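=== RUN LOG ===
request id: a7f3
mode: sequence -> structure
chains: 1
length: 183
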Amino acid sequence: MKGKAIFLDRDGTVIEERNYLKDPAEVVLLPGAAEALQKLQAAGFLLILVTNQSGVGRGYFTMDEVARVQERLDQLLAPSGVRLAKIYIAPEAPDQPSRGRKPSPQFLYDARAEFDLDLSRCYMIGDKLIDLECGWNAGVRRSLLVRTGYGARLEAEAPSALRKAVVVDDLAAAARWILQQPD
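=== RESULT ===
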């Protein structure tokens, strides 16, 4: 049987939203995030981060700074035994050509090939419509919107856009919902 994964947005989903985060000292896990990821990992899901980092393309920070932020996130997750299988980063600004910038499903297709995944057994979790669209475009089982980050505002401003989404309070609630689904 092909594998299954949870595709995760980073800012506003796993860590607190910070506009154009470049300082590792500002990385703060959202409450319950590490425990939620640990439960998903223990249930056999690969954890794959898919993040747009347009601050690089806009000249606000470098890929080295993105890497340092990622190292800090990895350090914060390590005590819970959480290991991200892969991190896909789209550094382009919205107006620049990009192979993988969400809502493009390309990084999910790349992960499917690299990890022998069945996308119909996978989930996408994020706080923006482009996160959900990325999952829908790739054919994942479900896309989940968390109300953390920009999620609550999106839910209030564009509820009709979320008809196909599962809307939950946070990553912990997303994990609970996913773990209740039949395999």
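=== NOTES ===
The chain has seven helices and six strands.
The chain has one domain: 5-179.
=== END ===
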